[in-house]
Amino acid sequence: MENKTFYIETYGCQMNVNDSEVVAAIMKTAGYRLTERMTEADMIFINTCSIRENAEQRVWGRLDVFRLEKRRNPGLLVGVLGCMAERLKKQFLEKGIVDMVVGPDAYRELPLLVAEAEAGQKGINVLLSCEETYADISPVRMDKNGVSAFVSIMRGCNNMCAYCVVPYTRGAERSRHPESILREIRELFAQGYREVTLLGQNVNSYSWASDAVNLNFAQLLEQVAQINPLLRVRFATSHPKDMSDELLFTMAKYPNICRHIHLPVQSGSTRMLELMNRKYTREIYLERIAKIREILPDTAISTDIIAGFCTESLDDHNDTLSLMKEVGFDQAFMFQYSERPNTKAARHLKDDVPPEEKTRCLNEIIALHNKLSLQANKKEIGQQREVLVEGLSKRSDEALFGRTSQNKVVIFPKKDYRIGDYVQVRIERCSSATLFGVPLD
Ligand code: SAH
Ligand code: SF4
Ligand code: F3S
Fold it and tell me: Ligand 1: residues whose CB is within 6 Å?
């Protein structure tokens, strides 16, 4: 008999993307075949995100599409995975079209739940674990370029930022065995990968202490960097409160650790940061930025910003704008505050900034950021940068795109270069999001 096929759609963060690769590996081992076409699938999985209301809305919209698909193909099974499965639990099963609900720590159970669903019994497993890291599972890479891969080094989060749903959907923080991380990365390099991004909600608090091995994040990063000088190493996300000098000195020692740090600030107002439970002040954040610039002068800094958190005043908002000007972020992900049920903020604070005010503040933040990132990119003009080629440019078959160590996208003429090559490029012009250059060989 032909193997049954599964199709998987992924929403949310890179960790979810990597989890879908773990799910694909588990399903393949159990004898199922991955398909890229929803219409030929025997089962559809949707890996979901709860971070903001609109992330959840998108998933409800997709479930409506799957409902139609199920009408066409009545044997079709639908499984909801990930953070929304964890948050809403049984509510999905009551929806009728959903056959399986599986939380982020229960993916090993998926083949069993599929078998039960095939027998007509709806299945749910949303147990969170204190140990699961899927350390032994080699993710099925779905990125396709074969150059750049994500590697989870930890799961969960212990930080309890007041606005955030992640500690509830992903459970407690746990680090993955260093040997399994290093093994996975060595294999990736042998397969031709030239860049890995180490993933966790707060990678700086990575910690392994057992089997006679004691390792913090800086030490793990050093071991990864030593695998091969041709392997670029990135990591995300760093929490400002845990950004150590040791880590910066380790980065300085290895040119293959990329000169880019994602350091979400959330707000430039110390009053807001305290309400958000971020455990640093504006001054501490700026001091960390100064330290990065001192130890690693050529490093790009990106951030996340939330507009309109509970009780935010015009003064608080202006503090965010002034901090942005002071730092000059190279890249930023900017959001309106979206209250998530059961978080600290939902239980104890009032979501009292009117929606139109949130939008106005966000737009102001975005406009300022576009101006600042254009300024930052203009400083790149005339520089020579090493670019790792990732693929053909979306706009032209005659051009390639890749990234600099600073994580800036560069577009340049194709010549004879191939995906996975390192090319020296001189930057000639830029927009606020992209650099354009010419190869220097
Ligand atoms: N672990 C990372 C970020 C995880 S979520 C960190 O600590 O920085 C990614 C970003 O989504 C956050 O940095 C924050 O800016 C945003 N975010 C999280 N919860 C949100 C909410 N309820 N409303 C709006 N934005 C939110
Ligand atoms: Fe959420 Fe804060 Fe944890 Fe990031 S560090 S995942 S924002 S609780
Ligand atoms: Fe979303 Fe869960 Fe990631 S809520 S941002 S998918 S950890």
Answer: 51-52, 163-164, 166, 201-202, 237, 239, 264, 266, 304, 306, 335, 337-338, 340
